[in-house]
Write a structure and sequence with these properties.
The structure holds two protein chains of two kinds.
Chain A (H helix, E strand, L loop, with lengths): L1 H4 L1 H20 L13 H31 L11 H24 L1 H16 L8 H26 L12
Chain B lengths: L1 H11 L2 H19 L5 H13 L3 H26 L8 H12 L3 H35 L3 H15 L7 H16 L1 E2 L6 E2 L13 H19 L22 H6 L1 H16 L5 H14 L12 H25 L5 H12 L6 H6 L1 H33 L3 H20 L2 H19 L5 H23 L12 H27 L1
Antiparallel strand pairs in B: 1-2
Helix pairs in contact in B: 1-16, 2-3, 2-4, 2-16, 3-4, 3-14, 4-5, 4-6, 4-13, 4-14, 4-16, 5-6, 5-13, 6-11, 6-13, 6-16, 7-19, 7-20, 8-19, 9-17, 9-18, 11-12, 11-13, 12-13
Classes of the chains: A mainly alpha, B mainly alpha.
């Protein structure tokens, strides 16, 4: 897999990127008259992140060069299939939609949608799960669980959950 | 003392008190074992109810929740690799591999047993050395707390299995996340990128849920799920607690060391069980003869984590009762209850209301037994519930986690953060950057910063050299250097031998 083959390069680049992003914000921190002001620790952290990122990138490049020179056999880490990427993207989009709709429709409707969407996405496509019947079962399960959670936490434990703006 | 003990016993030996204790324990376990629903949330929910009860009844309810919650988190940590509370992070490292091997029940039983022992040892510390430990904790000032923070961050490096650089990078990332928001002392806005909602920083629960619950969602989405249950509990109906006498004697030193770490961390205000389990695990791994086995599913890791996090509870009551200073968040809520019921903790409490003090000691002891009975009794139901197919279990966990996050923070923005932190966790897992150092660095950074800056403000000439005037600081810094360099020295020696 791509990530695992070049993990040091990716992780080093990630730390460097975060370090650069944070460095752009340091000058926006207000300077105060107190010595050892609020910029002290951010500067230290950004420096550490940048140094570590750089070292990892260098290590990663050295590893790649060594592998090319030795003509080492390809390590079989397995492949990300299109289906896996599709599942990850689906789950991400469903959660984003859930959070977006939560203040609009409230917990019960958006929560049911979240449960239903993710269960459908993650369900294996085996013979045990006949698609026609299972959708209604999952829909019922999603609504029942979400409603149960809502009433348990709102009515019994008195924890506030979003009700939705569309309801009067 | 005996007189107070008798009076304390008389206060708690009634059916209502015991039932409230057991009820609180059940609630605490349920809240603790569901990721996102923390012990503190359960305490907050039950606090208004406790005001209507008698003082000792209120204390027994809340104490049951506290003890149950701390231990309940181990169930989800072991079964689904998501810590129920931050105090159970290290339990996932060895507990879940054991569960994947078919030893879920054994892992839970062992963790439960050592949680119980941790509670007992915390109780023993509470009744025997409470005043002395409280006086010792008064000697800790800015320099000492800064040194403890540095020591804890240094120990993180021992959690790293394959790359020191990645572990330190993860810790630095955790520090960066902790710096987002309003700075202490001068309240300057930092690293918020102009986003107003980040002015309050990122909450611990948001970070934990994002990293572990939402991260798990993307991990599961990537897998080709099997139809069978994911946790094959092949070893059922374990006799006793799944540990032999030989194993128990082998783990004795580990248990006592972890308990001492938990008690000391509990005594120090502002720290808590979420730090003690990480420190105890790191030290256990560092001092072990087979550190490479940690993280593969050995009981040593479970012993260190669970003994220390439960011993912290007893430790946290020491400064609470003797000085009126809460040791951690949950004891802060119990302090609120005590004050409302007219019980003012402090040096005079032992003199004027000694019966209440000993009643609290005895309640902690009984709560340990109630926690043992509740979890042992309901264990099979927990395993059945959390052994549901992942495609059904994970979405339910996500929904409950959202309830937990929104219930704590009351902000939709934090749920947005969870979604994106989950993606971050997924990427970090792919490139093998460990998550543990990130979390501990996040927790410790405020302690380091506040104490460093205040220490420098009060130091003569505002120089760092003043810190070295404190013997405790010097000892802790030397330990930090030793911990940081010892693995390297051992590695060089091994290379010379070969």
């Amino acid at each position: 897999m791509l990530f695992q083959k070049y993990e040091k390069l990716f992780s080093g680049s990630f730390f460097l990127l975060i370090g650069i992003l944070l460095a752009t914000q340091i000058n926006k921190i207000k300077i105060t008259n107190i010595s050892m002001d609020s910029r002290l620790l951010p500067i230290i952290v950004v420096s550490i992140l940048s140094v570590i990122g750089l070292l990892l990138v260098i290590e990663g490049i050295v590893e790649i060069i060594k592998q090319k020179n030795l003509n080492s056999t390809k390590l079989n880490f397995g492949q990300i299939t299109k289906k896996n990427i599709k599942n990850i993207l689906c789950c991400f989009l469903i959660t984003v939609l859930f959070v977006y709709l939560l203040p609009i429709f409230g917990f019960i409707i958006s929560g049911s949608m979240l449960l239903f969407g993710i269960i459908l996405t993650l369900t294996p496509k085996g013979k045990q799960y006949k698609r026609e019947n299972i959708i209604y079962y999952f829909l019922f399960l999603s609504v029942a669980i979400t409603t149960g959670i809502y009433f348990l936490f709102v009515k019994i434990f008195l924890i506030l959950l979003p009700r939705g703006n569309i309801w009067p | 003392m005996l007189e107070y003990l008798n009076e304390g016993l008389a206060l708690i030996t009634n059916l209502r008190c015991i039932l409230l204790l057991f009820g609180g324990t059940i609630l605490g376990v349920l809240f603790g074992c569901v990721p996102g629903l923390t012990t503190n949330m359960c305490l907050v929910v039950m606090l208004p109810l406790s005001f209507t009860l008698k003082s000792i009844d209120a204390i027994s309810l809340l104490m049951g929740i506290q003890v149950g919650g701390c231990t309940g988190g181990l169930i989800s940590a072991i079964l689904i690799n998501i810590p129920g509370t931050p105090a159970n992070i290290c339990t996932t490292f060895d507990g879940h591999p054991m569960a994947k091997r078919g030893e879920a029940e054994r892992a839970i039983n062992i963790s439960l047993f050592y949680s119980f022992l941790g509670n007992l040892l915390g109780f023993a510390a509470l009744i025997s050395i409470a005043p002395w430990l409280a006086n010792f904790s008064l000697k800790f000032g800015y320099y000492e707390f800064f040194a403890i923070g540095v020591f804890s961050i240094t120990i993180i490096s021992t959690l790293i299995s394959d790359s020191v650089l990645k572990g330190l990078g993860s810790a630095a990332l955790g520090m960066a996340l902790a710096l987002i928001g309003t700075a202490p002392i001068d309240y300057a806005n930092r690293l918020t990128f102009g986003v107003i909602n980040l002015d309050g920083g990122i909450q611990l629960i948001t970070l934990t849920i994002g990293l572990y619950a939402f991260g798990a969602l993307y991990e599961v989405a990537e897998k080709d799920l099997e139809i069978e249950r994911t946790i094959q509990n092949t070893k059922r109906n374990i006799k006793g607690f799944g540990i032999s006498l030989k194993e128990f004697s082998q783990q004795s030193f580990n248990m006592i060391r972890s308990a001492i770490i938990g008690i000391i961390i509990g005594v120090l205000p502002g720290l808590g069980a979420h730090i003690s389990n990480l420190v105890a695990y790191s030290i256990a791994k560092n001092q072990s003869k087979y550190p490479e086995k940690y993280g593969t599913g050995i009981i040593d890791g479970l012993v260190a984590s669970e003994t220390s996090n439960n011993a912290t509870i007893g430790g946290a009551y020491i400064p609470l009762l003797t000085l009126g200073i809460p040791g951690d968040g949950s004891t802060a809520l119990i302090l609120a209850t005590l004050i409302i019921h007219g019980i003012v903790p402090g040096p005079s409490l032992f003199r004027n209301q000694g019966d209440i003090v000993y009643a609290i000691f005895l309640l902690l002891l009984i709560a340990s037994f109630s926690m043992l009975i509740v979890i042992k009794g309901l264990l099979h139901y927990f395993i059945s519930a959390l052994s549901l197919p992942e495609h059904i279990l994970i979405p339910i966990i996500i929904l409950l986690s959202v309830v937990g996050v929104f219930g704590s923070t009351k902000l939709i923005f934090d749920i947005w953060l969870c979604v994106f932190i989950g993606l971050l966790a997924f990427f970090m897992n792919k490139v093998k950057i460990p998550l543990g150092p990130l979390l501990i660095a996040y927790v410790i950074t405020p302690i380091i910063e506040i104490n460093l800056r205040r220490g420098l403000m009060v130091a003569k000439n505002r120089t760092f050299w003043e810190f070295f005037q404190s013997p405790i600081f010097c000892v802790l810094i030397c330990l930090s250097i030793l911990v940081a360099t010892l693995p390297l020295i051992i590695k060089i020696k091994k290379q010379k031998v070969f």
